[in-house]
## 1
Amino acid sequence: MDTNFVQEIPRLRGLPASLPVEGAIRIELQEGIPILRASFSVQDRVETLLRKQQDSKLSREEEEEFDRYEEIDDYLSFLNRLVRNLFQARQQGES
């Protein structure tokens, strides 16, 4: 593997208790590249926490849950960038 794409792999400190065991992630294709996204139920939970955060203060448990969701979002973004970069490098190598 080309070291140009090697980055520090993010570590998750934990998963939110509300994260569903199945169906937490969906896959979309963008220009033939699989992109990982949070499921609609996960997005709904994050939006609920965001609304509550704007209207009032989150409890300590909700803050921790929200932090875990942010970590998952960062992780999915990292994986998506990695896949996209590998795909682009492969295309350039074929040119």
## 2
Amino acid sequence: MKKLRGNIQYLPPPTHINVNHRAKAICVLFMMVISVFVFVLLSGSGIVPGASPACEIRVEAFMDAINRTLTTEGSFIDRDGNALTTGAGPGRPAMLVYPEAFGFLLGYNSTRFARYGLRHRLDWYLNHLLDDYYIGSTVQLTLSTALQLKAYELIGDTAGSVIIMENASGKLLALASRATIPFNPNLLDDNMATYNAYEGFFLPNGWTERTPPGSTFKLITAAAALEHGFSEEELRFYDMGSINIPGGSVINNFNNNRFGQITMERALMFSVNTYFANLALELGTTRLDTTMHQFMLNSTIELDFATITSAFDWGNGSLFYLAQTGFGQGRTQMTPLHLAMVTQSIANDGTMMTPYVIQEITTGNGTVVRSGSPTVLTETISPYTAQALQAMMVQAAHSYGLTYAQFGTVGAKTGTAELGTGYNQVYLVVFTDNHTIVMSRNYTTGTSSQLIQPMMALLTFMSR
């Protein structure tokens, strides 16, 4: 206490808390609790953007599932407007008109097993870009139904593929593939367990499965020697049926055949392993590697229907692997579609076109929202080298019985790749004036000669 003015004492006012302030504090605290609760509730529901990504994904999936119950899947048609799928009504997957011949390309759209093939890649157009009646867009492909059905028929009862592509444009006319057993997306629920029992069943053998290219690769080795200016004398080789590789390895010809003095043209015609093993050694890794990259090996190639890759390496500089690479064994792996692109670029004077299968996509009101057109992918080799290889392939085709009198201009090369399991991967690549065709069969005990008769049948069909 303070004493002021005589005996009068003044006491300080008593300490107290304003009731209104206390009420306000309680209200603020209460509102904070409510706000936190509401935020947690809303963020957990996915309503607050970015608050809970995992929840947003669940909400989006839920809304997508509801949308699909109301939607009729869009249709596929071929280049002539013929139906390849037919809508089955809201919430039900479309049905394939030719399920086995088009199965691996078009794939499936399933509530149980999600989506695969073009129906996966084009899902937004088929099930989300809708008209006023909740019907998806129409996808027109570049394929010919007649050619696709014939190609599938000629694959036979084994795994394999047939690819038909226009030389000048890269447009695909057929892309047929068969696994160990037929694939029918219309019966997916009944047969999925059977399909899954086969390892690699859903690797479409016509475009994404990589295997050694066998003797078809000799075209690339030959191109490398021509591109790097080997003289006519340097392109001659005396074949004794085998070649010793520094380090102790030996490479033999098929059936140990001996050809004596031989040119590149005859070496391609008779597919002489020793010739191309020696040519690879003469080229060395740097020059052969350069040409392989020109043909886009070791590249990832994005197409409108698939992503394809290839691979090779030199085995730590081993001369044996270099020699093996020269004739298509070694550590090189390519897809049948990539072999079609190599062949097409040779037929097209060195210009590799991008393969494409989507002609156009149209909404219900007739608006074209996407279309395909010819696109140059890369320049692989000079026109001079391409034309030299064309002439050699024509001579090889004649030796196989693919004559001008029957089929007009035809160039060809066979290839048998040993898989090391007692089975082979076999190829026959062909070009005509307008088309490139690749046939392959997987895991066969035969050789590429088994493809010549089916190829004749296909060329005859195409010439009608």
## 3
Amino acid sequence: MRHPGVAIAAVVVLAAAHASAQQPQLNDSQKLGQTLFVQSCGVCHLKPQLNAPQFAPTLSRDSASGNENAMRQVIANGTPRMPGFKYTFNESQIAAIASYLKTVAPQAAPAATATKREGRDAD
């Protein structure tokens, strides 16, 4: 090992390049949607830190069966368990949130991941 620092730096650069390649490039509308989502929807729909409860499902491009128009309707009008945002956001802001959600990859359910891990450990 002549230069362990160089090897570590190379790994960090490659990992960063790989991570940025997986992140979709957001257009201006999607960036606005991301900001609005984090500020207004994230309290319920983003995974909390430190084992706090999550109040609503994690959203992704597969939410509302992947139908962007249906996403807009739910965001605007709400559901029995979620308030509507048609009086908070205008139509273009609601469309921006739905457009952003279409860029979010679905996440594995935490319970399914734990079950798979337990199954491997038991073998």
## 4
Amino acid sequence: MLYQARLDWIRTRDKFKRAVAAMRASNEASQRACRHFGFTCIDRAPRTWPDGATDDELIYELRLKD
């Protein structure tokens, strides 16, 4: 419901062309949620997270308009 509420809000504003989400590569639940709402993975980079863990960061994008 949170994804849907955020996307509904952003779609009512003409100035936004895309929505972006970033997560750890090991966060499969977030990846599934992004794909469910039409996001596409556009980038992947190694990262050391604030808790000291090392895992790739995935960047997902949803194009709202061109």
